[in-house]
């Protein structure tokens, strides 16, 4: 595919600086008595900064100074350009194994677990740490590969964990080590990017400690919201695919899990968060690893202050609820300022987002320490929450660190990628219906990852690699992701980009009209994140700067949509792309050998993450 001439423009040059100091990881909940110390007050004054978002080198992180970090780093730091160098490496040893799961107590099914846990272990690090995860694949007959969602992987593309793009899958019995740097901070997650495996349990949360754009007392940690099926994702994926061939929607989810649990009929239990202290502020890290029901998330009687969208700190935004599409994260703060009682936390299906209608409301219980009975069934009600499927817009999610997207090259350079279902011929010669982006369904070969093409300087990329070259560093690229006007299935798609955050210039219904440029788009500090919702029957305009050489997937995060091809990959500045080392090569040799006799050959795009989804 050819990439048109691009006018050279300015850009976010990145400078990888380091102040080479070890950052003390000060996560102790000091000031707990509720009284700021003198130092707190001084810091608070310098760190409550909508107007003066400048780093204060004397400022350290604490309940009243969350925007500070340490040694000159703060929420005001341009994390594209610099991050602390802690000199610290956090290491994890993980083993992926077959197991069984029944999180709501009603149905036991095969699943996979990392170190015996479902969801997998939470990975903790401090901003600036190096993270090293050694993964052993003990699943007897399937490959694996872990993707670190939202992690920029600056200069470390071979660690991105995408079989067929940045690596060969990890052969059963083999071990590989991922090493990468936490240049960003906040809440994210990891998941297997090897076909359906993620939906069977190969996922978990990542917490990178760092500054925040608003103060809080306690961090309640990650709170994973996910839907759950009683069939394995491989079975589910096949059903979804077959239904698509017949023009029908995929099967409904059986339940939705909040923090790994829920009640189904007479079995299971509600997730409980207890001992909330009156007037304290709590941070909750919401992660959507779900696929099916579109849910609006809220806590009865309490407002949320949203402080991050994905890994990007935003100006605190107060709202009654958030709508989270798959792969997205919101860190929210709520204040325990209501009567000491128990309250429902809700993840409620939104029909406007084309949800399945089975068990639409997932519930959890939040209770105050001083409640008469912390185990009492809450009597709270949801109040009136929006029922639309609209993501928060650019006026709600304003990045804390201000960036301006350069618009001078937009008209010359912008390209449209159509997203639709289409007829395509697969390798076995059958006509099948697939999801596609730019009307070609992606199909990668596990044993020939894109980075291998780059390493051998082979530019004969198969057309089904959906590879778009971005040869030049230091420029802005702009993309309109469009559902065609005549689409048969106008549904929203959460679009996720690897290796970069993107800026959400705008979105709308119908077909994007370039003649209305630029007034309809936001150029001054637009929302920045790594997943955004393409409205059903509409368009999404995004921009990102080329500042990270490598092969980066951009795809719909709905499991079986990417399974059925809804993805492209950007090959950025291939001559400067980091390549796999000898261990990486070795892994490929093992896989290539294994694949000759493997029990379960590839039956999909190779990239599907969940296969247990979804709406249609
Ligand atoms: C391995 O893959 C096969 C088919 O692709 C699937 O049926 C099976 O459930 C998978 N096993 C695990 C443990 O992921
Ligand atoms: C979620 O579950 C984990 C494990 O059971 C627990 O430690 C954690 O406190 C729970 N999170 C919240 C916010 O309740
Ligand atoms: C997760 O994302 C999917 C797809 O966008 C959406 O349907 C679902 O509601 C989301 N779940 C939550 C808990 O927000
Ligand atoms: C989209 O597909 C068309 C037709 O195959 C092709 O000419 C164009 O280059 C593709 N767009 C991109 C951005 O690759
Ligand atoms: C380049 O890749 C193509 C497609 O996979 C392959 O057919 C060809 O043999 C490769 N060329 C070289 C020199 O390896």
UniProtKB/TrEMBL annotation:
Domain Plastocyanin-like, residue spans: 96-212, 224-370, 449-575
Provide the protein name: laccase
Regions of compositional bias (Polar residues) in chain numbering = 44-54
**For the region Disordered, what residue ranges are annotated?**
34-54
GO MF annotation terms: copper ion binding; hydroquinone:oxygen oxidoreductase activity
Instruction: Write down the superkingdom of origin.
Output: Eukaryota
Q: What EC number(s) would the UniProt record show?
A: 1.10.3.2
Q: Which PANTHER family match?
A: LACCASE (PTHR11709:SF87), MULTI-COPPER OXIDASE (PTHR11709)
One protein family per Pfam: Cu-oxidase
Q: Does the keyword Transit peptide apply?
A: no
One BP term from GO: lignin catabolic process
Q: Say if the entry is tagged with keyword GTP-binding.
A: no
Q: Where does the signal peptide begin and end? A: 1-20
Q: Please give the organism.
A: Paraphaeosphaeria sporulosa
| PROSITE patterns, per the entry | MULTICOPPER_OXIDASE1, MULTICOPPER_OXIDASE2
Q: What catalytic reaction does the record list? A: 4 hydroquinone + O2 = 4 benzosemiquinone + 2 H2O
> What InterPro entries does this protein map onto?
Cu-oxidase-like_N, Cu-oxidase_2nd, Cu-oxidase_C, Cu-oxidase_fam, Cu_oxidase_CS, Cu_oxidase_Cu_BS, Cupredoxin
């Amino acid at each position: 595919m050819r990439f048109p001439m691009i006018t050279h423009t300015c850009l976010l040059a990145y400078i990888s600086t380091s102040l080479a100091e070890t950052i003390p990881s000060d996560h102790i909940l000091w000031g707990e008595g509720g009284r700021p110390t003198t130092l707190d007050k001084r810091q608070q004054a310098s760190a409550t900064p909508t107007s003066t978002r400048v780093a204060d080198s004397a400022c350290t992180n604490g309940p009243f100074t969350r925007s500070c970090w340490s040694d000159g780093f703060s929420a005001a730091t341009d994390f594209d350009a610099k991050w602390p160098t802690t000199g610290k490496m956090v290491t994890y040893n993980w083993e992926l194994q077959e197991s069984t799961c029944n999180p709501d107590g009603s149905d036991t099914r095969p699943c996979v677990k990392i170190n015996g846990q479902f969801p997998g272990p939470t990975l903790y690090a401090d901003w600036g740490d190096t993270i090293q995860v050694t993964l052993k694949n003990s699943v007897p007959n399937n490959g694996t590969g872990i993707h670190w969602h939202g992690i920029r992987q600056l200069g470390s593309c071979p660690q991105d964990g995408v079989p067929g793009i940045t690596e060969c899958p990890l052969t059963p019995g083999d071990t590989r080590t991922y090493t990468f740097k936490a240049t960003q901070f906040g809440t994210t997650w990891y998941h297997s990017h090897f076909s359906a495996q993620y939906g069977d349990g190969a996922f978990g949360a990542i917490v990178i400690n760092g500054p925040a754009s608003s103060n809080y007392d306690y961090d309640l940690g990650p709170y994973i919201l996910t839907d759950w099926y009683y069939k394995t994702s491989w079975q589910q994926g096949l059903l979804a695919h077959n239904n698509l061939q017949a023009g029908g929607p995929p099967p409904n989810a059986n339940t939705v899990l909040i923090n790994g649990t829920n009640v189904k009929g007479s079995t299971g239990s509600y997730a409980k968060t207890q001992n909330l202290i009156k007037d304290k502020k709590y941070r909750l890290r919401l992660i959507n690893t779900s696929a099916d029901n579109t849910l609006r998330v809220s806590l009865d009687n309490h407002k949320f202050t949203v402080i991050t969208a994905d890994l990007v700190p935003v100006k605190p935004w107060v709202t009654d609820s958030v709508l989270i599409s798959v792969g997205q994260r919101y860190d929210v703060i709520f204040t325990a300022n209501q009567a000491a009682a128990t309250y429902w936390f809700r993840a409620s299906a939104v029909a406007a987002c084309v949800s399945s209608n089975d068990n639409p409301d997932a519930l959890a219980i939040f209770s105050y320490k001083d409640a008469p009975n912390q185990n009492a069934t809450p009597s709270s009600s949801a109040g009136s929450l929006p029922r639309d499927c609209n993501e928060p817009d650019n006026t709600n999610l304003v990045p804390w660190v201000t960036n301006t997207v350069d618009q001078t090259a937009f008209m010359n350079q912008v390209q449209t990628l159509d997203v639709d279902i289409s007829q395509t011929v697969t390798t076995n010669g059958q006509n099948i219906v697939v999801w596609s982006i730019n009307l070609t369904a992606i199909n990668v070969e596990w044993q020939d990852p894109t980075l291998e093409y780059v390493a051998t300087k082979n530019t004969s990329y198969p057309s089904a690699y959906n590879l778009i070259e971005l040869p030049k560093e230091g420029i802005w690229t702009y993309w309109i992701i469009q559902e065609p006007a005549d689409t048969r299935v106008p549904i929203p798609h959460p679009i996720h980009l690897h290796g970069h955050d993107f800026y959400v210039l705008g979105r709308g219904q119908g077909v994007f009209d370039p003649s209305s440029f630029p007034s309809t788009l936001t150029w001054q500090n637009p929302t920045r994140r790594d997943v955004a919702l393409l409205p059903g029957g509409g368009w999404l305009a995004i921009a990102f700067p080329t500042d990270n050489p490598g092969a980066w997937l951009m795809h719909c995060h709905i499991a079986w949509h990417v399974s059925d091809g809804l993805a492209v990959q950007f090959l950025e500045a291939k001559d400067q792309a980091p390549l796999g080392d000898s261990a990486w090569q070795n892994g490929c040799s093992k896989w290539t050998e294994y694949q000759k006799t493997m029990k379960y050959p590839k039956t999909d795009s190779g990239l599907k993450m969940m296969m247990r989804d979804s709406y249609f």
